[in-house]
Amino acid sequence: MKIVADFHIHSRFSRATAHDITIKNLSQWMKKKGVNLLGTGDFTHPMWFKELKENLEPAEEGLYRLKGDNDEKNISRFILTTELSCIYSQGGKGRRIHLVILAPSLEVVQKINIALSWQGNLQSDGRPILGLSAIELVKLLFSVSPDIVVIPAHIWTPWFSLFGSMSGFDTVEECFGEWANKIFAIETGLSSDPQMNWRLSQLDNFSITSNSDSHSVPKIAREANVFNTELSYSKIIEAIKSGIPANYSKDSTQFLYTIEFYPEEGKYHYDGHRLCNVCLSPVEAKKINNICPKCHRPLTIGVMHRVEDLADRPVDYKPSNRPPFKKLVPLLEIIAEVMNSTVAAKKVQNEFERLINIFRDEISILTDISIKDIEAESDYKLAEAIKRVRENKLVISPGFDGEYGKVKIFADNETVTKNSTLF
């Protein structure tokens, strides 16, 4: 069975999240997006955990569905997940590491929450801050259940990640110590893609996953993982592990590919200072010793720079034993540009809903539906826009220091006439 999975999202109980994130709304948007399996996010928060228990019922082994959802055409399942923030000192340096946690049952989550309630205030945020090191936390989690999965989150972002320039480590082993061999997957984050991660031979023992880290319902699955496997917790974990090079076979893999944000659009792709409006490539930043030319303070070193620092392979390195990936632009963003409007505009939202009703779901529209069929049901400019996204023919201003990059499909003042470039 083809499964589109997004493991990392947040509830409305996390900071800077939308107030309409409910289990019911998530279930509805899963169908719009084409997602079969969605992480619950934030299972450590008491109020969200209460809602999970009230609104979900067991489905396949270790998976859950919305109570009363018996739709066999558009199967929607939930997997129990959360993100934890570890802030501590190690090796004479402050560390801030975020980890995505997958759990096999509500009963195990209950035990996790009891154990973590002694380590931090679980009510303060859906992504709680803990004073534990990554080593201590992993040890605690595996003492609760050996079936728990720990995935280092958005491993390159500067402030809160495994390889972050401001607070991270240079190797997985430094971060997790004797527990490093229990970590079998990492998460790319929005500002990196798998090819950037392929450049590090030290990551050859890890599967590369991609998730949305969504803070609002429409943004689920802006990054996701596509598997060919059975619906169950253990089979999903097995499918993730099949992305490890030693386990990977193009003929029999369960890990088909990942769906990726264009990494340049991520908030930390390049170096810079947001308040100074300074955005620099790693080469440019190194020429000025990573010092902002306006305020003369150290730049926020972005993802591309950190990859360059730790990589031991060339930019164009492409392994034969890794799942491929597809870069996409969210459909709402494409429609907004075609209509010269904003994602929040009513006409953009209406066109999105209309296309979903015709073609079933967003991921199908972006990846599978023929361009001719899209043109027939919409117009040639939208069809041309989706065609360009599929062909990676975009103009992108990279993100930096917490500022999203800007993606443009059409050049300023470009006129797209019917069939000018479409077919």
Quick rundown:
The chain has 423 residues and is an alpha/beta fold. The chain has 14 helices and 17 strands.
Structure description:
Helices cover 29% and strands 19% of the residues. The protein is of the alpha/beta class and 423 residues long. Strands 1, 2, 5, 6, 7, 8, 11, 12 and 15 form a 9-stranded mixed beta sheet that branches. A hairpin with a 2-residue loop joins strand 5 and strand 6 (93-103).
Please give the number of β-strands.
17
Class of secondary structure makeup: alpha/beta
- Kindly estimate the percentage of residues that lie in beta strands according to DSSP: 15-25%
Largest beta sheet, briefly? Answer: 9 strands, mixed
Straight-line N-to-C gap? 32 Å
Q: What general form does the structure show?
A: globular
Total count of helical runs of at least 4 residues: 14
Radius of gyration: 21 Å
Residue stretches low in confidence (pLDDT < 50, at least 5 long) are none
Output mean pLDDT.
95
